[in-house]
Amino acid sequence: MKIRNPSSRFDLSIKDNYKVLEVGGGHNPHPKANVVVDKFVDSNYHRSGDIKVLKHQQFLNADGEELPFEDRSFDYVICAQVLEHVNDPVRFIKEQTRVASAGYMETPSMIGEFLIPKESHKWVLQEIDNKIVMYEKEQIDFRPVMDFGYVFQEFLPKNSIGFKIMQQNHSDLTLLKYEWKDDIEVLVNPDSSYYKDFFTKPWDEEACNRFLVKRTLSGEGMSSFSAFIDICRSVFKSKVLKK
Length: 243
Known about the structure:
Blueprint: E1 2-4, E2 20-23, E3 35-38, E4 58-61, E5 76-80, H1 89-99, E6 102-108, H2 110-115, E7 123-128, E8 131-136, H3 149-159, H4 161-169, E9 175-181, E10 186-188, H5 193-200, H6 205-211, H7 217-241
């Protein structure tokens, strides 16, 4: 079942003594992971760079749909930016819940996929009623007009503090972030207009209120100020402390 929507992949319920698996660490493995698996070691088609493994991590070449571990071998499993690529999402998710009792799933949201479409992404996803709902792109005739990936992943993060504040405050705009325990509720290509309409029809005010964070003016101000402090702290660490 769903536990919560973390603010980021670093805001996770992982205790220091947990044994942590990451499925699909790719070029950006999570530092909390003890073991990292990846299916494709000779191709970067599904990721943005070469596989990276941190000093404390064990790496295994393995398929997320058939993990080489006993049941409940781990306390927690992390899977970020992978589910949208897989062939059999039901089998993939069952393997996650088999090898660990809790974990974190992150994918592009539907809006994220429209803004930053990837050829390697087979699925479009959105959280609806605490469930991960996913459609194969062909099922919903997914046709993004333009790819604005460079704008939202490179240019604005490097050149606009205002955008970085918005990105931190409203990461749910482009990301699905789902922390779970025991199992993951997922619907694959549901043949229901209740779900499909969110993927195929324009969003109105009701849909925005349902899927996006809506705060009071004071709440938004406090959140923006907190995000600004976090960004300043991060810049200080990266540009000053590392010198």
